[in-house]
Design a protein that fits this description.
- The chain is mostly helical.
- The protein has a domain at 3-74 and 377-424.
- The chain contains 19 helices and no strands.
- Helix 2 runs antiparallel to helix 19, helix 5 crosses helix 18 (340-375) and helix 7 (122-142) crosses helix 17 (320-338).
- This is DUF445 domain-containing protein.
- It holds the Pfam family DUF445.
Length: 425
């Protein structure tokens, strides 16, 4: 049934009780004076008083009643709407969101046990993964590409600004050269070069370069000389010579080229650490990197490729990301279930967080309640409350009429008791 229609019926019912009491009272005025007549009249009179008093009490909540001296105390819900909001906010804060209550609630719920039990179900972890996948997909859909690209550029610029190229490179080289590690790296490089020189493709490349040199710089001689033979022999000689030199370097730890390599590395480290001009060049390089359109475009391209891959994966039924989330959630549940110390630590962390966050959370909720109630339309609020509880309030009027009549009848009997006793004796 429509709440408005139900309220109207309840109001008519309460009014009918009051009208019945009025009709009985008027009827007794025309009856002969008698004990029974007086008793009924007293009951009807008291019923009218009770019904009218409760009618006033109920109506005073929702509208202004123009009775001199009392009107200022009516229309309570509309006049006191903001005060009611403040009181509700204060009540919620003091009785529900105070720090001891929040901490006690967490202690009673044993959140770590609840989490481990909930995550122990595959269906729950699957649903959690599905929700997180939808959230992630939605976030990717609503993200502004321009803002993301601008953020990436700012992040890249910030990272470059914070990076001390000279000191960082010096530290890396210091680490690489400690205990002769760079010599081991040099040995690996020499081995690779020897293998490369012994490759047929490498010798063919050297031979071709020798022939090209003869044709370019000595075209007349090249016509009478066996160019192909010279190229092949030259390639073999060069490869053999270089291979022999590299083998000597690899076998002799004190080889002069190794020592030259040590000096070059040490000199580079020293310049990185102390050469202001060299450091200035690196700083200039940083500035160039920040303004380099190709680098920014590359970073933006990486984001677009990553975003596209994630969206495609999230849209699949067998999403890799979704499977990882499900597996991670199940693993967390298993670890919590098997480790009492981990559950105790988690509960302790939650209690500590609750103690620190409860005051701020209480302020947020109470401010929200207060501002929300203050923003409501007072008349609309009054009307909605009346539709919600108005039917029950009409029973107050009915009870007031009935109880008032009963009290009036009892008081009449008490008042007439001396007369009745005198007649009896």
């Amino acid at each position: 049934m429509d709440p408005a229609i139900a309220l109207q019926r309840a109001e008519r019912r309460a009014l009918s009780y009051l009208l019945i009491a009025l009709a009985i009272f008027i009827a007794t005025l025309f009856m002969p004076v008698h004990f029974a007549t007086g008793w009924i009249r007293a009951a009807a009179e008291a019923a009218m008083v009770g019904g009218l008093a409760d009618w006033f009490a109920v109506e005073a909540l929702f509208r202004r009643i123009p009775i001199p001296g009392l009107a200022q105390h009516t229309n309570i819900l509309i006049r006191k709407k903001d005060a009611l909001g403040d009181g509700l906010a204060r009540f919620v804060r003091e009785k529900f969101l105070d720090t001891p209550s929040v901490v006690r609630l967490i202690q009673q719920q044993n959140p770590a046990d609840a989490v481990s039990h909930w995550l122990g179900s595959y269906e729950n972890t699957r649903q959690l993964s599905a929700v997180l996948v939808k959230v992630a997909s939605g976030v990717l859909d609503v993200m502004d590409e321009r803002n993301v690209q601008a953020f990436i550029r700012r992040a890249l610029d910030t990272m470059i600004d914070r990076l001390d190229l000279s000191q960082s490179a010096a530290a890396i080289l210091d680490t690489l050269t400690r205990n002769g590690r760079h010599q081991a790296l040099l040995d690996e490089t020499l081995d690779y070069l020897v293998e490369l020189l012994n490759e047929p493709q490498t010798r063919e490349f050297i031979s071709a370069r020798i022939v090209d040199w003869l044709k370019t710089d000595h075209p007349k001689k090249e016509k009478v000389l066996p160019s192909e033979w010279l190229g092949n022999k030259g390639s073999d000689m060069i490869s053999a010579a270089v291979t022999r030199l590299l083998a000597q370097m690899e076998a002799d730890e004190s080889h002069q080229l190794r020592q030259a390599f040590d000096r070059a590395v040490a000199g580079l480290i020293e310049r990185l650490k102390r050469d202001a001009e060299f450091q200035a060049k690196l700083d200039t390089l940083k500035t160039q990197l920040k303004g380099d359109t190709a680098l920014n475009a590359y970073a933006g391209g990486l984001w677009n490729e990553w975003r596209s891959w994630v969206k495609r994966d999230l849209a699949r039924d067998d999403s890799v990301i979704g499977a990882k989330i499900t597996g991670a959630a199940a693993w967390i549940g298993q670890e919590l279930a098997h480790s009492a110390s981990l559950r105790t630590a988690l509960d302790a962390q939650l209690l500590d967080a609750a103690e620190r966050m409860a005051p701020g959370f209480a302020d947020f909720v109470t401010d929200h309640i207060r501002s929300t109630v203050h923003g409501w339309n007072a008349e609309h609020l009054s009307r909605q409350i009346r539709l919600s509880v108005g039917q029950d309030l009409q029973y107050i009027r009915i009870n007031g009429t009935l109880v008032g009549g009963l009290i009036g009848a009892v008081l009449y009997l008490i008042a007439q008791a001396p007369v009745l006793l005198a007649r009896a004796y």
